[in-house]
Design goal:
Order of helices and strands: EEHHEHEEHHEHH
CATH class: Alpha Beta
Number of strands: 6
CATH architecture: 2-Layer Sandwich
Radius of gyration: 21 Å
CATH topology: Gyrase A, domain 2
Largest sheet: 4 strands, antiparallel
Helix content: 40-55%
Length: 208
Amino acid sequence: MQIIDPSFSFLQEIDGVAMVRRIEAIGRVCYKSEGKITEDSYRKFLSGIIARGHESVIEHEKVTVRLICDRGVTHELVRHRLASYSQESTRYCNYTQDRFGGELTFIRPFFWDTDSEKYRIWKEAMEAAERSYFRLIELGATPQEARSILPNSLKTEIVVTMDLREWRHFFSLRCAASAHPQIRQVAIPLLEAFREKIPVLFDDIRTD
């Protein structure tokens, strides 16, 4: 059994300045104000678009991210409908095979200290799930049958593509203080990475 922390990676190089300049050029078609474009005019223009709620303009650009997290998090993630998803399938992945290290991998519940009684109970439950899964496979169960005993804490990989408007929607919901702590654990660092890579468009989203 392996226990890991969640992570993410971008599946393409992101030139955020080029992105927002293209969005500005597209957005200015609405006002026929292309002649006002300068080296940094996108900042004021896009800030105004966001403030006015004219966010359809930013749908013209998209970003793809690979997330490694637990399956409970992905149950919330895929509720964002304006997106494309490709997820590791427990129907077809046989975790007894060598390519999975012959073990199950789980995501550490960060809200419990590793020396606490709560964490000990969780770890014992994961060990029991692994033993049961392997035994079912030994008895001839298929992966899609044996997956019935796999818990939410099972590690999964999911590739997500959203346009920038939907990423704003995702962050506004999943970084909020009321969101589930494990999706916030993924969403807040991801938002910070978006802010570093793409100017203006995510600066107003709160995480408190």
